[in-house]
């Protein structure tokens, strides 16, 4: 059994929780959760979440018993995730306009955070990895390969600012237009997300540092999730038989369990 929790340390504020369980010597199931509070700037900000569940195969490559202190492991999982994001937009100039019931066009201040673009996501990918596990240190290289599907896109911002080309709108409207068009026209971008994880501690508990990169170029997601580069710090807990002290017979021979 494995549990880890971490805090995202990029410009946005968020966290991850990960859990895994191996019911057999070669099959594993995993569950992940991510919540991102989003960093707020004078013009934009955002927040999002993602929950994932998956299963797959793992195999130690250099040991024949579960007690080895140094283990090289290959893993490959299929994962399905559901999530959502809300991208906020400030209008500090008051140039967004609205028409009242008498047909008059008046300036309308869309106060943060009530002006936003909302989207839902489905994420599906395979994740092969190779890792080196020791009582003191773990090194893990992994890559997510798959796609992200966007659906249920909505907004509180007037439609004209979302569907009109930037040249016909104020400068800040270009972000609204490009973000909305990205979500509605590029609904299934390809994902390639390599990562490196370093854990240092002793047996059951280790401190964790992780670096993630996403090759998916999506301006809206970059506002919300800090893509393409993010790093996090956390704590990892493993409950594994190989960390237990082997009991012995009266003769001194180790038991294999």
Detailed description of the structure:
The protein is mostly beta strands and 257 residues long. Helices cover 9% and strands 54% of the residues. The protein contains 3 helices and 12 strands. The protein has helices at residues 160-163, 173-185, 219-225, and strands at residues 2-8, 14-21, 27-36, 44-60, 70-89, 97-99, 105-107, 116-134, 137-155, 190-202, 205-213, 229-238. Strands 1-2-3-4-5-8-9-10-11-12 form a 10-stranded antiparallel beta barrel. The two termini are 17 Å apart.
Short key terms for the protein model shown above:
single chain, 257 residues, mainly beta, Porin, two-stranded antiparallel ribbon, 3 helices, 12 strands, 9% helix, disordered C terminus
How would you summarize this macromolecular structure in one to three sentences?
The protein has 257 residues and is mainly beta.
CATH topology of the domain at 2-82 and 120-153 and 187-243: Porin
- Taken as a percent bin, the fraction of beta residues is over 45%
Poorly predicted tracts of residues = 249-257
Overall, the morphology is elongated
Structural class: mainly beta
Helix content: under 10%
Major beta-sheet overview: 10 strands, antiparallel, barrel
Please state how the strands of the largest beta sheet are arranged side by side. Answer: 1-2-3-4-5-8-9-10-11-12
- The CATH architecture classification of the domain at 2-82 and 120-153 and 187-243 is Beta Barrel
CATH C-level label of the domain at 2-82 and 120-153 and 187-243: Mainly Beta
What is the residue-mean pLDDT, rounded to a whole number? 77
Order of helices and strands: EEEEEEEEEHHEEHE
Radius of gyration, in angstroms, nearest whole number: 24 Å
Q: What's the number of extended β-strand segments? A: 12
Distance between the termini: 17 Å
